[in-house]
Write a structure and sequence with these properties.
Helix 4 packs parallel to helix 6 and helix 5 runs antiparallel to helix 14. This protein has 16 helices and no strands. By secondary structure, the protein is mostly helical.
């Protein structure tokens, strides 16, 4: 499931069918992609539906995550393009459930193995694609790697998560003995080397920047935890570190755009500054109810906000937070931020837990990377990882009690 949710394998699987479309409508392939992603996630959804206890819904992050989905589901009703919003909402709900499934069924040490194997499969196949010179595996103009994915910013996050998983796998391997430990250490080191090579050859800036920022957030968390005082204990050191880093990232992005010296109407910062300006204008058009989840950039009305917007008719916001604002308005971003703060509050209680630290880094990596790409969407492995990383800490005690109760009954 996690390998498929990196998306590249699914698009590569149906590439021949996509290229052979002559008579059929071009959009028909989107139904094939959607159905495939549903199939690979359906077992996880069924397992959660059959085994999820009512105690799980008493977990505050779960409550806020459900509230966010309920609101985004409501936006389908007034969406400017419901046939776009409804499938996107279903995909988001399925992938969120897949993340909950990972949190319910697996310990952190098991997740590192799962992610390591899934990401390694994508990286190895990409390496084969590059060496065998598959179509579009290497950018023809700038010679950077794309592999089995559709651009470098799709390949690089796979390498970034693989690097994080390799660290978790290395820590988990020390719990074993003998051959199992040696295999784990060798696998972790090999995966880390392959990840670094892929990041270097992909020439992506988003993923390395997100990794460095996530590491900085971890260091800040550990430093803040040493600060005495009741206010710090009540708010939580992990929560405060995320808030500080978020402010820093926001100011840095604004500074990059302003230093360009180019008006907002012109493509700057790899076209993102112009796109973000367009997103913000669209949000101000409908700040309360939004345009409907992931519908704004698929409607002609959105591109009629101004005279120059039509020059950028892209389907993606290139910013996950803008997707939330455009899709569900102010309430969507409020619910999402509440979900984040509630989840990071649980991590503040375990600053010495190594697995907790890596989960923290993984969550921060996704959150920072989402400032550049639309990663807060369904059928995408980063959203599943974020959901797992944020709810797993506080969810574990209730599930352990549930499993113990089941064992006693048996």
């Amino acid at each position: 499931m996690m390998f498929a949710l990196t998306q590249g394998p699914i698009y590569r699987l149906w590439s021949a069918s996509s290229n052979s479309l002559v008579i059929s409508a071009k959009t028909s392939m989107m139904h094939v992609y959607f159905a495939t992603f549903v199939v690979v996630q359906l077992p996880a959804v069924v397992i959660v539906a059959r085994t999820c206890s009512i105690d799980v819904y008493r977990h505050r992050p779960i409550q806020l995550l459900v509230a966010l989905h309920v609101w985004l589901g409501c936006t389908v009703l007034w969406s400017t393009l419901a046939r776009q919003s409804l499938p996107e909402f279903i995909a988001l709900a399925l992938t969120s459930t897949a993340g909950v499934y990972l949190a319910m069924r697996f310990r952190s040490t098991e997740i590192w193995w799962i992610l390591a194997v899934a990401m390694a499969a994508g990286l190895v196949l990409s390496l084969v694609a590059v060496n065998q010179k598959w179509d579009l595996a290497i950018d023809a103009a700038e010679n950077y790697w794309i592999g089995i994915y559709y651009n470098r910013n799709s390949l690089a996050p796979v390498a970034g998560v693989a690097l994080i998983a390799s660290i978790g796998l290395l820590i988990a391997s020390w719990e074993y003995r003998g051959v199992r430990r040696n295999v784990g250490i060798f696998g972790a080191v090999s995966l880390a080397v392959l990840s670094c090579i892929t990041l270097w050859r992909s020439e992506s800036r988003t993923t390395p920047s997100a990794l460095v920022t996530a590491l900085a957030a971890l260091i800040l968390w550990q430093l803040l935890h040493r600060v005495p005082g009741r206010p710090m204990q009540r708010f939580g050191s992990a929560r405060l570190s995320v808030v500080i880093v978020a402010i820093g990232v926001f100011l840095a992005l604004r500074n990059v755009a302003s230093l360009s010296g180019v008006p907002a109407e012109t493509s700057t910062f790899n076209s993102r500054a112009a796109l973000w300006s367009q997103n913000w204008t669209g949000f101000l058009e409908r700040p309360l109810q939004g345009w409907g989840w992931m519908a704004a950039r698929h409607t002609a009305e959105f591109f009629k906000q101004g005279t120059w917007w039509a020059a950028f008719p892209t389907e993606w916001s290139h910013n996950g937070y803008h997707d939330l604002l455009l899709g569900g308005g102010v309430l969507a971003i409020v619910l999402f931020v509440s979900f984040l703060l509630s989840s990071f509050g649980y991590l503040s209680d375990s600053p010495r837990d190594l697995n907790g630290m890596i989960r923290f880094v993984a969550a921060c990596f996704v959150l920072v990377a989402a400032t550049q790409e639309s990663f807060f969407i369904g059928s995408h492995f980063l959203w599943a990882i974020l959901t797992w990383g944020l709810i797993s800490t506080g969810l574990k005690p209730a599930l352990v009690d549930q499993k113990d109760s089941s064992n006693d009954t048996a």
